[in-house]
Amino acid sequence: MTTFKEIRGNLIKSTSTDPANPQEGQIWYNSTSQVLKGEEILGAWSAGGNLGTPRSGLAGAGTQDLGLAFGGNGGTTATEEYDGSAWTAGGSLSQARLSAVGCGTQTAGLTFGGNAPPVTAATEEYNGTSWTSGGALNTARGYLAGAGIQTAGLAFGGDEAPGKAGLTEEYDGSSWTAGGTMGTARSTFAGAGVQTSALGFGGYISAPTPTTGATEEYDGSSWTAGGTMGTARYAPAGAGASSSSALAFGGGNPGNLAVTEEYNGTAWTEVNDLSTARKRSGGFGIQTSAVACGGTITGTTAATEEYNYTPVTRTFTTS
């Protein structure tokens, strides 16, 4: 029989007390309690500070400690900045919009598309204080997804007359140019990553299966099929640094979902749920440190949740 030493190259250490700062994957035998233990890192959601303005269909950008939320239902132009615990007012959008995309950072943010109404092609850039106009999308659309940074943005999918779009456009900081077309046209979905390593997942497609869990990966020129989500959904939120490290949370199918899944570049794995099921929320951050803000619960909410990895000591038992 293969031993732990043969697999890992070292013996399991015996100690009378648990290590003060165990590392992920570390295993030890506690001789006092006479049990085998190990350290695991798990992601979990906890409450953050409430938005100043409850809203649904908003966009987000930035990191957990330096975030942005803007736009949303009710014709709002409001922007709010997050410091990891509380939201404060930022500069207003030039144009009110619902179901737009947000990406970039708190001091170099980007938003594009959405429903003004009608659908818009307008792009705006944020400098940490105010929004200014950028180059317009070639195709106006709402309920699209996106990824990237202010000088290298990516817009894909969405609703355009007369139906759903698979179009992709790339932004260079001043203008948009055509990119590779998605394999499946869709709307009301989420994106994550950067212009050369992006992910699109979930959303509405055509009948007979209107809500999908299909995932596609973008390499800077073309889309390829990725692993299917465990729970098909529309209007989820997403976060992540690349097509191999992303987080999907919330959405609807048809009711509100709390389900959270992590993507590793091949497959989705379900992890700890949101505390409160919601759809059409704003999302931003990375896989290990994300934010969900606003959205629809029973009505429009201002609630914010933060996703973080936390060390957990496990006791091994026989079964």
Topology:
Blueprint: H1 4-8, E1 13-15, E2 27-30, E3 35-47, E4 59-62, E5 67-70, E6 79-82, E7 87-89, E8 101-104, E9 109-112, E10 123-126, E11 131-133, E12 145-149, E13 152-156, E14 159-160, E15 163-164, E16 168-171, E17 176-178, E18 190-194, E19 197-201, E20 215-218, E21 223-225, E22 237-242, E23 245-249, E24 260-263, E25 268-271, E26 282-286, E27 289-293, E28 304-316
Parallel strand pairs: 1-2
Antiparallel strand pairs: 2-3, 3-28, 4-5, 5-6, 6-7, 8-9, 9-10, 10-11, 12-13, 13-16, 14-15, 16-17, 18-19, 19-20, 20-21, 22-23, 23-24, 24-25, 26-27, 27-28
Could you please describe the fold and organization of this structure?
It is a single chain. The chain is mainly β. The protein has 2 domains: 4-42 and 311-316, no CATH class; 43-309, Neuraminidase (6 Propeller). The protein is built from 1 helix and 28 strands. It has one helix at 4-8; strands at residues 13-15, 27-30, 35-47, 59-62, 67-70, 79-82, 87-89, 101-104, 109-112, 123-126, 131-133, 145-149, 152-156, 159-160, 163-164, 168-171, 176-178, 190-194, 197-201, 215-218, 223-225, 237-242, 245-249, 260-263, 268-271, 282-286, 289-293, 304-316. The longest helix has 5 residues, at 4-8. The two termini are 19 Å apart.
In CATH, what is the homologous superfamily of the largest domain?
Answer: Kelch-type beta propeller
Give the CA-based shape: globular
> What is the straight-line distance between the termini?
19 Å
Residue share in β-strands:
35-45%
The largest sheet, given as strand count, sense and whether it forms a barrel, is: 6 strands, mixed
If helices are DSSP runs of H or I spanning 4 or more residues, what is the number of helices? Answer: 1
The strands making up the biggest β-sheet line up spatially as: 1-2-3-28-27-26
Topology as a string of helices (H) and strands (E): HEEEEEEEEEEEEEEEEEEEEEEEEEEEE
Mean pLDDT: 92
In CATH, the topology of the largest domain is named: Neuraminidase
Which value, in Å, is the CA radius of gyration? 21 Å
Kindly state the number of beta strands: 28
- Computed structural class: mainly beta
CATH top level of the largest domain is Mainly Beta
| Domain unit count | 2
CATH architectural arrangement of the largest domain: 6 Propeller
Helix content: under 10%
Q: Runs with pLDDT <50, length 5+?
A: 4-9
